[in-house]
Amino acid sequence: MNSRRDSTDGPEDVDATFAEIVAGLEREGVGKQAFLDDVDPDEGDEAEPARPVRPEGQPAVATADDDPDAYPDSDSDDPNDHYVPPDPPPLPALRPGTIAALLVILLGVVLLLFPGLFGLTGAIGTPLALIVMCSGAGWLILRMRNTNPPDSGWDDGAVL
Asked: What would the pLDDT profile of 78-116 be if each residue is shown by its tens digit?
């Protein structure tokens, strides 16, 4: 029940078609440059090593050979050679509504794990605990700010 056997979309002999395509590309000279790049220059030849050829209109790519100071040596022991990220800004202080919502979620977790503390059975405590935890999470979501930060200026960039 293979539908590929009855298909007439492609050539009958795939290997012969592939050989024809490869032969046509070799006649056009495709792939010869790759072999020429691997050839080592003569030892007596002091010519500059060949740089990769770039298509016309493409910007040149800087390499370590162009400017040795642009790329510091990775083996250097100098502590000033590597990037040290700045300290992150401090977390903002929690507002009272946020603290209350977190306490409601904590109450829901305690109610879920220990319903006997409140004199409830598991059959009643579990759905009630889930409702309490979802209420706390919903309260946090409703309290999220949807305004720009105060220091954003006129251009707030991409806001998700």
From this structure: 666 777 789 999 988 999 999 999 999 999 999 999 999
C-beta neighbour count of 42 within 10 angstroms: 8
Does position 15 have pLDDT exceeding 70, yes or no? yes
The one-letter amino acid at 154: W
Q: Which amino acid is at 43?
A: E
In the chain, the amino acid numbered 116 is G
Q: With residue 135 as reference, give the H or E element that holds it.
A: helix 122-142
Both structure tokens of 41: 């220059």
Residues 6+ apart with CB under 8 A from 118: 111, 125
Q: What length does the chain have? A: 160
pLDDT on residue 132: 96
DSSP structural state of residue 52 = P
CA–CA separation, 51 vs 38, rounded Å? 12
Residue type, 160: L
Tokens of 69: 């100071």
Nearest residue to 64 via CA among 55, 54, 74, 56: 74
